[in-house]
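Format notes (please read before filing issues)

Several people have asked whether sequences and structure tokens are stored in separate files. They are not. Every record keeps both together, in the order shown below: the sequence lines, then the token lines. Line labels are part of the format and must not be stripped during preprocessing.
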Amino acid sequence: MDSNSNFLKQQIATMRESLFTEGILNEQYATLEGLTNDDNPYFAERIVNMYLAGLPKHMIAIEQALEATPVDFGKLDICINKFRGTSSSVGTHNLVIEIDKMVESCTKGNIEGCKIGFSSMKQELDIMKNKLGAYQELLKQDRGGSPLPDEEDMVTKSN
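Then the structure lines:
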């Protein structure tokens, strides 16, 4: 292995450790990484990419539910819990904490608490997206800058 490759691997390891230390990620993400194998070497990356791609849909749904007059707390709760489910399945620790605070406000029918919680949640989401995005970019560099192979490519190679 050349020194550039060693340096990149060290950067990846350091950034990964930082993501856990800062609470950006938790053991659920490590579980996803553990599901990566020779048949699906990019499993965790694919899951994170799908999660990141779906974020706007969740945020729009929550925002629309918050802006409705009157607020339908049942609908808002459903939107928040869908977002919580996907976020916890990827292992976004700090973000899930902020989502839980919003769920608590929603359960109490506290619209102002929900709005404050939504703002805090968006801030944590931005932090997570930036840091996890940078980590994903290092992983991409480690595989030579190439995008992830398509699922079809993976199936073709495994047959």
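For reference, the curators noted about this record: The domain at 3-145 is CATH 1.20.120.160 (Four Helix Bundle (Hemerythrin (Met), subunit A)). Helices lie at 3-21, 27-34, 43-67, 73-90, 93-107, 111-142, 151-158.
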